[in-house]
Every structure is written in structure tokens, then in C-alpha cells.
């Protein structure tokens, strides 16, 4: 289940209702999928064949189509990252820069962990959303953020998009951001 850390105060927010209430106030969508639907061999598998990716997508077909129907996503795929990913350190270096997109960034975590760092309202400042399997998040279009892995360096997630142009990251220069 997701947890929040507000960077300015180090305050942590846990518990599904509390996390959802906080994220809703920050215009970030938060939902949860049932991880028990996933075949057990895919719970901790981070290098996936095309067949396994297809199996994952079909397991969550109803959830994906429901989310897509409500929010206009037209394409979806699976992203799997781990220490087996070629050039992972370079990839993470590229990821770890505050940016925006012209469409929202949706991730449904199906295995492993990941973290979104998001610029909140003026009073809150930047906050971290630590995600684990079952967590579904959408960072709104135009909201500065970046995504990275956590200590275990492994994640599998479903990504949903409205159109390919929305994938492009526009750098957001923010001198107030402290890593
Ligand atoms: Fe992004």
C-alpha cells in the first residue's frame, strides 16, 4: 500500500484512506488493484517474456479497461525494470530529473516498488509517493514530478497513455528542488 513522505517536514502518511485523501487534495489519482489476482509466479518476477506480459495484461484486463474508459487512455503496455535491465544506472539518471508531460502519467504497479516525487501545492512542496504492488497512480498533466526505483531496484508496472506524444518529458527547472 502506498505511503507518502512530505519532504519539507518529513511527515509520513500511511493507510489507504489517508493516502487517498492526501493525494486527492494534490490532484493525484490513487486507486488499488487486487494483487491476489496475479499468478503467484509473477509476484516477484522482474524479467518478463512477451507471454508473461500478455498474461499480466489479461489478468488486469477489466481494471485496465475500466480505468481507460473513465479517463480516455487508448494504449497500454508493461514496463519491467530491474538490475537485469541493460544500462539501469544510466536510465535512472535520466529518470531522476523533475519534468512535466502534456498528458497524465499513469502507473499500476504489479510487482516490486517504485517512488514518485511530485511537486505539491505551495503549502506542501515536494512529496514522495512510495508505491508497491496493487497501487495505481496518475500524476496530472503539467504537474512537475519524476519517478525512480527504491532500494530493491525492481518494478513491474502497467502504463496507460492517451497518445504517444504525451510520453515526452519536458524538463522542469526548479532551483528550489533538493534531492
Ligand atoms: Fe514523467
UniProtKB/TrEMBL annotation:
Pfam families: ARD. Keywords: Amino-acid biosynthesis, Dioxygenase, Iron, Metal-binding, Methionine biosynthesis, Nickel, Oxidoreductase. Fe(2+) binds at residues 99, 101, 105, 145. The record marks 104 as: May play a role in transmitting local conformational changes. Pathway: Amino-acid biosynthesis; L-methionine biosynthesis via salvage pathway; L-methionine from S-methyl-5-thio-alpha-D-ribose 1-phosphate: step 5/6. Gene3D superfamilies: Jelly Rolls. InterPro entries: ARD, ARD_bac, RmlC-like_jellyroll, RmlC_Cupin_sf. The record marks 107 as: Important to generate the dianion. The keyword DNA-binding does not apply. Binds 1 nickel ion per monomer. Monomer. Catalyzes 2 different reactions between oxygene and the acireductone 1,2-dihydroxy-3-keto-5-methylthiopentene (DHK-MTPene) depending upon the metal bound in the active site. Fe-containing acireductone dioxygenase (Fe-ARD) produces formate and 2-keto-4-methylthiobutyrate (KMTB), the alpha-ketoacid precursor of methionine in the methionine recycle pathway. Ni-containing acireductone dioxygenase (Ni-ARD) produces methylthiopropionate, carbon monoxide and formate, and does not lie on the methionine recycle pathway. This is Acireductone dioxygenase. It comes from Cohnella phaseoli. The gene is mtnD.
Amino acid at each position: 500500500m502506498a505511503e507518502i513522505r512530505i519532504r519539507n517536514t518529513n511527515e509520513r502518511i500511511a493507510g489507504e484512506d489517508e493516502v487517498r485523501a492526501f493525494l486527492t487534495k494534490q490532484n493525484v489519482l490513487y486507486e488499488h488493484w487486487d494483487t491476489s489476482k496475479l499468478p503467484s509466479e509473477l509476484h516477484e518476477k522482474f524479467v518478463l517474456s512477451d507471454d508473461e506480459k500478455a498474461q499480466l495484461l489479461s489478468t488486469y484486463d477489466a481494471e485496465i479497461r475500466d480505468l481507460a474508459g473513465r479517463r480516455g487512455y487508448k494504449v497500454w503496455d508493461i514496463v519491467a525494470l530491474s538490475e537485469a535491465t541493460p544500462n539501469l544506472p544510466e536510465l535512472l539518471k535520466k529518470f531522476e530529473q523533475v519534468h512535466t508531460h502534456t498528458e497524465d502519467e499513469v502507473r499500476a504497479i504489479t510487482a516490486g516498488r517504485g517512488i514518485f516525487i511530485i511537486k505539491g501545492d505551495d503549502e506542501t512542496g515536494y512529496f514522495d509517493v512510495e508505491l508497491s504492488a496493487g497501487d495505481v497512480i496518475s500524476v496530472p498533466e503539467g504537474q512537475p514530478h519524476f519517478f525512480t526505483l527504491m532500494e530493491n531496484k525492481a518494478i513491474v508496472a502497467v502504463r496507460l497513455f492517451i497518445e504517444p506524444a504525451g510520453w515526452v518529458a519536458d524538463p522542469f527547472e526548479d532551483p528550489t528542488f533538493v534531492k
